[in-house]
Write a structure and sequence with these properties.
Blueprint lengths: L1 H4 L13 H13 L5 H22 L5 H12 L3 H9 L6 H16 L4 H7 L3 H6 L13 H16 L3 H15 L3 H4 L2 E6 L5 E5 L15 H15 L7 E5 L5 H12 L4 E5 L8 H8 L5 E6 L11 H8 L10 E7 L17 E2 L1 E2 L3 H7 L7 E5 L4 H13 L8 H14 L5 H17 L1
Parallel strand pairs: 1-4, 3-6, 3-9, 4-5, 5-6
Antiparallel strand pairs: 1-2, 7-8
Helix pairs in contact: 2-3, 3-4, 4-9, 5-10, 6-10, 17-19
């Protein structure tokens, strides 16, 4: 194995902690009798456990060794894979080196673990190659990643040579991308040890679509039109969804992601205390072949908070222009985002005309940077009833007539914050739980 991995060129940047490189070191020590058998077995089991942990996270099955190698291929960001993501495979000298690496991966796919298993009296590699995973709920693993890895793994298993693997892998890069952005649709960020940012994939994403949001047709239309312009590479505006609590602002954003992720839309969720990392985030994604929606949920600032200045500089006003593949989308209960007080008017000047104070202009300037501002108001009584009936229709028999359902919904909203989509959903959740309990 170490003889194969030492020849990798484009895919040599596996990382010091790579399972493949660790196994290669173990095989080197075994081949040169540089380590006792008990120590070799212990080291092998450490790497086997890491493969099993990876398989549990991503839902691998059948042949975990092949799944792991495929995972390495489609997550390795190098000059070749990133170029294929952006423009697809084309004729060039780099293809010679890529096919040489794919020949090595073909040999690793067909690697014979029999000799080391016989010598050490173990069977872990054989078990990995004929694995039967315990069934899991979709929320417990990265289902989207699992399906892509297992499908490509099965195709590579049938490939005759490196030329066929080249066609399969480059087609995957073109259609799905490479690395985490190619496999996942939504991310959070956290500071990295090297001072940059680290992207963390979000596994359990709500499967909601816009049609699940009852009413708000104008809002959904405007949101869809702006998003379609963004994913198509046309001119579009940063989006602010504002209005009453519980009206479906965040739900609408998640629905947009689900409906346009197959067109390259990706979401990066950022919290207010992370605004200082925005420039680093944009630098990491600006040259990728995806459309990134930076999502800021429940955005608002108290009078003493100044983090909004980072956001203002990123949206407009900084030296570096915001790239075309990045769009800012925020939700807020406040139209102007920043708390305003009467004292903000203290420096207003009266000289024929009335001028807004500098303080007020400063606070309003952030909201003005969102060219697409969509208002979500609480529904009226009839709209509330429509929402209740629509959600109830998806839950089967709740044991109530329509008249009884609406009467109970009215009682519920009086005790739970008034009419809104969130109140309606919570009411139906309560009813559905009561029916199941009976």
């Amino acid at each position: 194995m170490y003889r194969e991995t030492s020849k990798l060129l484009l895919y040599s940047n596996l990382g010091e902690d790579s399972i493949l490189l660790r196994l290669s070191e173990i095989f080197f020590d075994w081949d040169h009798k540089a380590c006792e058998k008990s120590a070799l077995i212990r080291r092998i089991y450490v790497e086997i456990k890491r493969i099993l942990d990876l398989a549990t996270t991503y839902g691998f099955d059948t042949n975990l060794w092949h799944n792991y190698l495929t995972f390495v291929l489609i997550t390795n960001e190098n000059s070749f894979s990133l170029t294929c993501e952006r423009v697809g495979a084309s004729e060039g000298s780099v293809n010679h080196f890529a096919k040489a690496d794919f020949r090595i991966f073909k040999n690793l796919f067909d690697f014979d673990f029999g000799p080391i298993e016989a010598d050490l009296g173990i069977d872990c590699f054989s078990v990995l190659s004929n694995y039967r995973a315990i069934p899991k709920k979709a929320q417990m693993y990265y289902r989207n990643v699992s399906e892509k890895v297992r499908a490509l793994s099965a195709a590579i298993e049938q490939a005759k040579d490196e030329n066929e693997i080249f066609d399969l892998v480059t087609a995957h890069y073109r259609d799905c991308g490479v690395g985490m952005f190619g496999l996942n649709r939504a991310f959070r960020i956290r500071p990295a040890e090297n001072g940059g940012v680290e992207f963390c994939a979000i596994n359990n994403i709500d499967s909601v679509v816009l049609s699940d949001l009852i009413g708000y047709e104008y809002q959904k239309k405007e949101l869809r039109e702006n998003t379609e312009a963004f994913v198509s590479g046309r001119s579009c505006n940063n989006m602010l969804l504002y209005g009453d609590a519980g009206t479906g602002k965040s739900t609408s954003v998640k629905a947009i992601l689900n409906e346009y992720c197959d067109q390259g839309l990706r979401m990066i969720e950022i919290y207010k205390h992370q605004f200082g990392l925005l420039s680093e985030v944009i630098a990491r994604v600006k040259n990728r072949n995806y459309r990134f929606m930076i999502f800021i949920d429940d955005l608002s600032f108290e009078e003493h908070e100044v983090e909004y200045k980072f956001l203002k500089a990123v949206i407009e006003g900084g030296v570096e222009t915001k790239p075309d593949n990045v769009l800012i989308c925020a939700t807020s209960n406040r139209r102007h985002l920043i708390q305003e007080t009467w004292k903000d008017r203290n420096d207003m000047e009266f000289n024929g005309d009335v001028h807004r104070s500098d303080t007020m202009e400063e606070k309003l300037s952030l909201a003005a940077r969102f060219g697409c501002a969509i208002n979500y108001n609480n529904p009226d009584r009839k709209q509330y009833h429509d929402i209740v009936k629509g959600i109830a229709s998806r839950c089967g028999d709740l044991g109530l007539t329509e008249e009884q359902l609406l009467l109970e919904a009215n009682k519920w909203e009086i005790r739970h914050g008034g009419v809104s989509g969130r109140t309606a959903q919570q009411f139906i959740n309560y009813l559905a739980g009561t029916v199941k309990q009976k």
